[in-house]
Structure formats: structure tokens, C-alpha cells
Write a structure and sequence with these properties.
Layout: E1 2-9, E2 20-21, E3 34-41, E4 48-65, E5 70-75, E6 80-84, E7 100-114
Antiparallel strand pairs: 1-7, 2-7, 3-4, 4-5, 4-7, 5-6
Length: 116
């Protein structure tokens, strides 16, 4: 039996980059992402299923590639992520290096089994 595991990062949700906070100081923000929702779907008798997690993260924009609509984010835990912003991010032109954002991200894990 072959197992195939597909891990998709969905594009930022429409409101993902709508909240900008600027300034050098502010209240302490949690360093771990908050899980907003988790959905798991499995059909009885069917091999496989999927799980969707939606969470919020606070990050600082370290680079913007306007032509490719990509944003490099430095998360609070020190890791960097490059996010491709779809057309639903209507204020993409306003994003600049140094902006602090609160983004809502959706992660989907799909598992299925193919017949031999």
C-alpha cells in the first residue's frame, strides 16, 4: 500500500495583513501561536482524512518582493518564513520592511491511501 502525505500551507487569509502595528514598544505578546480552530475529518471505513489548523502569529516584515507578492517574516521565536500573498491581501502595496503584523494562517494536512 502506498501512503501519500500532502502538506499544504494555504495563502494568508484576506484579513491576514490588515492589522499593522507600528512603533518600538508595546505590550508583551505571547511567543507561541494561538490555535484559533482545529478541524479533523475522517470517514469511517475510508483510509485517510484531513486536519485543518488555523492560528495567529505576530511577526516583523524583513523583506518585501512586490513583483512576486512575497513577504519574508521574522517570527517571535526567531524563525523566518516566506509567505506568498494572494490577491485577497488587498493592502499588499502598503506592506513595508519593518512592519509588525498579526497574521491568521491556515495549515491543512491531507492523508490518503491509494490502492496497490
Amino acid at each position: 500500500m502506498k501512503h501519500k502525505l500532502t502538506h499544504h500551507w494555504l495563502h494568508l487569509l484576506p484579513a491576514a495583513l490588515l492589522t499593522f502595528t507600528t512603533g518600538c514598544s508595546g505590550p508583551k505578546v505571547e511567543t507561541t501561536p494561538k490555535v484559533v480552530t482545529t478541524v479533523t475529518v475522517v470517514q469511517p471505513g475510508v483510509a485517510g482524512g484531513f486536519k485543518v489548523n488555523t492560528h495567529q502569529e505576530t511577526a516583523t516584515v524583513t523583506a518585501v518582493d512586490k513583483a512576486a507578492r512575497k513577504v519574508t517574516l521574522l517570527k517571535e521565536d526567531g524563525t523566518k518564513s516566506v509567505i506568498t500573498c494572494g490577491p485577497e491581501v488587498v493592502n499588499f502595496a502598503q506592506i513595508e520592511k519593518g512592519d509588525r503584523i498579526v497574521a491568521t494562517l491556515t495549515e491543512r494536512l491531507v492523508v490518503f491511501v491509494r490502492p496497490p
